[in-house]
Automatic annotation (TrEMBL):
Keyword field contains Signal: yes
Originating organism: Limnohabitans curvus
UniProt domain BON: residue ranges: 47-114, 123-193
Alphabetical UniProt keywords: Signal
Comp. bias intervals (Polar residues): 204-226
Protein name: Transporter
Length: 226
């Protein structure tokens, strides 16, 4: 398992050499007994890719290569990370991404300061790989339902998860060497909604049409955890 993540990290590092705006994240299919499928629909996954591409184009057209800005979209909720030169650029970036087609909400985690070095970004690639490996090795975390983004030692967790899953994943990530801070950017679902996502059994089951509707949050909940 470890060798797979090392290879993935090296592949991301190679891609990073080609693009300074590539987000450092893992969220694809990973082998392992506790890996579940992505909880977004196929259509939403395509939309997220489109949002990231359109956002990258907008950033390039407005700021060129002067700023280090990463865009990560999950379920049409966009996380912005990186470093910019001043607060004006920070605010302009948030407004710019908020106007991108199909974006539902924006979480702005841009830091004002010099751009991270290639060494910092290389370390983040390896850190994200270690985080995903720890999730898989934990055997009770469905690693593939989490999108993991790394920025200067801070690990951002995205996904549609229950409160229970969020807590367990956070505990695992906090135990990974090199993680300075964990920020949860989750869209919470209920345990009932999670059960409804599981493959249906072949035998017929009754459904209570009068059951109350879910009160799960439809907006990202951002929780920094030191």
């Amino acid at each position: 398992m470890t060798s797979k993540f090392v290879k993935a990290a090296l592949a991301l590092l190679a891609a990073l050499q080609l693009s300074a705006c590539a987000p450092l994240m893992f969220g694809g299919v990973i082998g392992g007994a506790m890996v579940a499928s992505d909880r977004r629909t196929a259509g939403i996954q395509v939309e997220d890719e489109g949002i990231e591409q359109r956002s990258a184009t907008a950033i390039r057209e407005n700021f060129g290569s002067k700023e280090h800005i990463n865009i990560t979209s999950y379920n049409r909720q966009v996380l912005i990370t990186g470093e910019v030169s001043n607060d004006t650029v920070r605010s302009q970036t948030e407004q710019l991404i908020g106007r991108v087609q199909n974006v539902r909400s924006v979480v702005n985690e841009l830091v004002i300061g010099p751009a991270s070095s290639m060494g910092d970004r290389s370390n983040d690639v390896l850190l994200v790989a270690k985080v995903k490996a720890a999730m898989v090795d934990s055997e009770d975390v469905f690693a593939n339902v989490f999108k993991v983004v790394g920025e200067r030692g801070t690990v951002y967790l995205m996904g549609r998860v229950t409160q229970r899953e969020a807590k367990r994943a956070t505990d695992v990530v906090r135990g990974v060497s090199g993680v300075k801070r964990v920020v949860r950017v989750f869209e919470y679902i209920t345990e009932d909604e999670l059960r409804a996502m599981q493959p249906k059994r072949s035998d017929s089951q009754s459904v209570d049409l009068n059951a109350p509707k879910s009160n799960a949050s439809q907006q990202p909940v951002v929780t920094p955890i030191k």
